[in-house]
Amino acid sequence: MFVINDLKFHYPDDDNDLLNIPHWQVAAGESVFLSAPSGTGKSTLVNLLAGIITPQHGTIRVMDSVINHLSSRQRDAFRARHIGMVFQQFNLIPYLSVMDNIRLASRFSDMSRAEADERSHTLLQMLGLTTLDATRQAEQLSVGQQQRVAIVRALVNEPALLLVDEPTSALDAAHRDQFIGLLMQQLDTSRTSLVFVSHDSSLKHHFSRHVHIGQLQHDAD
Amino acid sequence: MMLIKLAWHSLGSRLGTVLLTIMMMSVSILVLLSVENIRHQAKESFQQSVSDVDLIVGPRTGQINLLLYSIFHIGVPTHNLSWDSYQMLQQQPEVDWTIPLSLGDSHQGYRVVGSEQQLFEHFRYRADHSLEFASGNAFNETYDAVVGAEVAASLGYQTGNAIVLAHGIADTSFSRHDNHPFQISGILKPTGTPIDRSVFISLTGLEAMHADFPGANTAPDLTPQSVTAVLVGLTSKIKTFSLQREINTYSAEALQAILPGVALSSLWSMLSGVEQTLWVISLLVLLGALIGMVNVLLLSMRERRHELAVLRALGYHPSFLFALLQLEAILITASSIIVALLALSAGDMWLREWLLSQFGLFLADSLLQAGTWRLVGGIMLAAILSALLPAVNAYRQGLGTQLR
């Protein structure tokens, strides 16, 4: 699904490479748990995979595209169409309705608006949200509900790659397992690859593969 | 359109701040539009203080001096035009009518102008308005006076009241003509010209007041000796320049004839400093409001960091964020302009009479003229340029966005 080769990245104000990944590959349909303590560049890696930022060196190939060789507009279009993202919290635009939040993503899909809305409603229902919830303002939902809407939005365009960054830290233990259960259930029905980033290793049993960020780095071995 | 929806709801979610910003902007736009209008209207009003007069004739002083005496009733005439010369003017075949004006006295700080019946027949201002009476009528008797609207309003005069005129223009003049009280025979309607601030009496009355023999049995000779200036109307405009030349070269007395339009224009250009100061002040007020709006948008960027990050993650290009901020600024400015225009129209509807009667400012038919629309366009452009700051900020934030 994606292949990273010889990747080096540092921030402009820092000379040392934050990330130096010789090679990392994730196959289609795989679900990978990437454990990484804070400050080790996990969010940076997510942003690189999404094409929001680009590395100074190396290549990131997602599907058939070397995304860091695309123009910034092409990368944005690629991300809109093929990559879904869910963050720790603040996933939704608070003053838009749930449905409009999803439409922010689904307007980039090949589906008609009616088809996209129908798919969104189906997904919402599978995640335990009602049609009524869809008309509510995002900020009126609980954090758990907001995270579920975020999954729906990330999946509505049937992405090839789903990047999930610490999505459960705002949730308590019971909701956390429920959240991951719902996420995995949705993935089973599609060919979407998942990279789930968290510092909390207790969640790793849900996933088909577990990688620690240290193992990826050049000086590992 | 997603962009419009986002901008609209985003502003709606910060309604309090946004409404305050709109209030601030609309007040300053209202100030700017009002100043611009009043500036324009004051000029019109000024230029139309007198119309239909082809020449103003007086002793040789200077064009501005003569204009100030004859139209604005300002200044102390140094010398006069003899009655013989006045009669000579009347007898010119090209002359249709003449209005003699004689200055020198005052009443409670308002100038007293001696004139004749022709004033009420032939004087025109603002294209084709003649003097009209709010009450009473023109002076008939020697000791009759007609007062302008502002004089009557500020001193509380009614027709029939007796007033005492004073020699000279000082308010506390010692040389009051106490022996010759005048009776108000009529009060004029507001005109928005210096007429409103004047007291008119007949030339005969003026002579009688100065000829100091009250109650004398023998009637004195009340033929005026001289007048300060004469407004002249011609039978045909074509003869204006030839008559002007004739008067300027009149050998019996040093006379001067001026064209009112030309003199008014050169007087107005002397006043343009005030006009420009007003303009600069209102531009500064607008600048203040624009800075306020930019400030509000920039402050909102902090709390909207996540929002911009989410949009980037969904595949929106930073230029979308740029457009979003610009659109918000445009919506705020457009709303402010609409509020200001509504307020201006309301003011136009309700304050028109008041402005005319209190300040002698006559407003033309509509405040919403071509100039207004140009100004509104300029304000919009200024707002778009100011909003570049938060918009570029959003763009850059979008480029370097860190999602957490």
TrEMBL record, chain A:
Keywords: ATP-binding, Nucleotide-binding, Transport. Residues 2-220 form the ABC transporter domain. The keyword NADP does not apply. Signal peptide: none annotated. The keyword Transport applies. GO terms for molecular function: ATP binding; ATP hydrolysis activity; transmembrane transporter activity. Pfam families: ABC_tran. GO terms for cellular component: plasma membrane. It comes from the Bacteria. This is ABC transporter, ATP-binding protein, putative. It comes from Methylophaga thiooxydans DMS010. The lineage of its organism: Bacteria, Pseudomonadati, Pseudomonadota, Gammaproteobacteria, Thiotrichales.
